[in-house]
Design a protein that fits this description.
Layout: E1 3-4, H1 15-19, H2 22-53, H3 56-64, H4 70-76, H5 80-83, H6 86-105, H7 111-139, H8 143-170, H9 176-197, H10 215-218, H11 221-237, H12 239-242, H13 244-251, H14 254-279, H15 282-295, H16 309-322, H17 325-336, H18 342-397, H19 399-404, E2 407-408
Helix pairs in contact: 2-3, 2-7, 2-8, 2-9, 4-7, 4-18, 6-7, 6-9, 7-18, 8-14, 8-17, 11-17, 11-18, 13-14, 14-16, 15-17, 15-18
Length: 411
């Protein structure tokens, strides 16, 4: 592999060129199946636990366990993504997930086993996500990688919008355990697509240091700041979603209003990513990344005025569109991380995102008990903007090093 200096492309490569790469099509299809399978399994498991126990607490815990073990898998197992061949890790993770869900679907599986298996899924998930993103940097180069990663995020957001509706509809015609069997099929199909549709590549590192975990990443100041710049906005951005139910109740908006409040942020995110990826040049995306990350939480301040439903939806759409800053951050991140560390870097990034969103939701609920929903969302906007500005200034100070150092490509 040669290290070469690369400049951002003059214009956007375009999403069509990304789909022209056969390996990416296989990764994209596998990602879509995995996302839908995960969402259906979350709904089915939550309903199954409630049917077995009648306990809202245990039903909610079955859902929350999808977040909590991410930190364990992302830290202790992050080196696996670089220590083993990527395709073997991806297929193995899919097979482990299929096996766990198959055990969940067995009639004799009790509550303790169901929750333990849910934890296993969550431990494996960051390893799979990180390895997939590292593989993406091998399959796609430069702006194609940024757009490919953008497409996978768009699928994730769209799957949230479509998957929960389909999952709820599915459970009206099949039992929860039968719905879990459908999820087993999606994981197996994903494994087959990745096994047959991607090339075998050797492990990035072969020495034992490949299992050293996240320590080498956090030792690098620029990488550390970029990780925080991915994570911190996410912690604050989930606050309105976490409090959507009580806010809809305050507005008297009913279940329809609740659904709209839950959808507004993902819709804004998808729209912002599509526009930035298709219309803006790579150099423009990088130039606007830091200003945009400082502004993306600013609309939350509008909650201090206690807006009605239409105004609240507009504020959430604007904030969601601001997350287009991630396209610029993506290119900086892959440029800053050496190829031999990319697997663990993407694993840690994924695990941190899920963990910090869970923390943000928990803190939002606690704060709302004291200052109310609108005060909590507005406060998240103020604190979020301040934190993002501090981190953006730190990243700006390390920018000259990023431009001076060679870019390790995965081609």
């Amino acid at each position: 592999m040669s290290a070469v200096q690369r400049k951002p492309a003059a214009r956007s490569a375009g999403y069509a060129r990304v789909f022209a790469v056969p390996e990416f099509r296989a990764v994209f299809a596998a990602h879509t199946l995995s996302m839908l399978g995960v969402i259906v399994s979350e709904i089915a498991l939550s309903v199954l636990v409630y049917d077995l126990t009648g306990s809202p607490l245990l039903s909610a815990l079955a859902f929350a366990l999808g977040f909590l073990p991410y930190l364990v898998g992302g830290t202790l197992l992050s080196g696996v993504a670089d220590r083993l061949p990527a395709r073997r890790v991806l297929v193995g993770c899919d097979l482990v997930c299929a096996g766990c869900v198959a055990l969940m679907a067995l009639p004799g599986t009790g509550i303790a086993a169901l929750l333990a298996l849910r934890c296993c899924l969550a431990v494996v998930s960051p390893v799979f996500a990180g390895t997939r993103m590292a593989t993406l940097s091998d399959i796609l180069d430069g702006d194609l990688f940024v757009l490919g990663r953008s497409l996978l995020r768009i699928v994730a957001q769209s799957a949230l919008l479509v998957g929960y509706g389909l999952g709820g509809l599915l459970l009206t015609v099949v039992a929860p355990r039968h719905a879990l069997l459908i999820t087993v099929g999606t994981f197996l199909a994903s494994a087959a697509l990745l096994r047959l549709g991607t090339r075998r590549r050797p492990a990035r590192v072969r020495e034992a240091a490949g299992l050293a975990g996240a320590r080498p990443l956090f030792a690098d100041r620029r990488v550390r700041l970029l990780l925080l710049l991915f994570w911190v906005p996410s912690m604050f951005s989930v606050v309105p979603e976490a409090l959507a139910a009580p806010y809809a109740d305050e507005l008297g908006a009913g279940s329809t209003g609740l659904g709209l409040l839950m959808c507004a942020l993902p819709v804004g995110t998808v729209a912002g990513e599509l526009f930035a990826g298709a219309r803006l040049r790579p150099v423009t995306r990088e130039r606007m990344a830091l200003p945009l990350v400082c502004l993306t939480l600013l609309p939350y301040l509008g909650y201090a005025l206690r807006p009605g439903l239409p105004a609240s939806l507009l504020l959430l759409l604007l904030s969601g569109a601001g997350t287009a800053h991630t396209l610029g951050l993506d290119q900086w991140f892959v440029r800053a991380v050496p190829r031999e560390l990319r697997g663990r870097a993407m694993t840690v990034l994924s695990a941190g995102l899920m963990t910090i969103q869970g923390v943000g939701m928990t803190l939002a609920g606690a704060a709302a008990e004291v200052v109310g929903v609108t005060g909590t969302v507005a406060g998240a906007g103020v604190l979020g903007v301040l934190c993002c500005c501090v981190l953006a200034a730190g990243v700006r100070r390390t920018e000259s090093r990023d431009r001076a150092e060679p870019v390790m490509t995965g081609r």
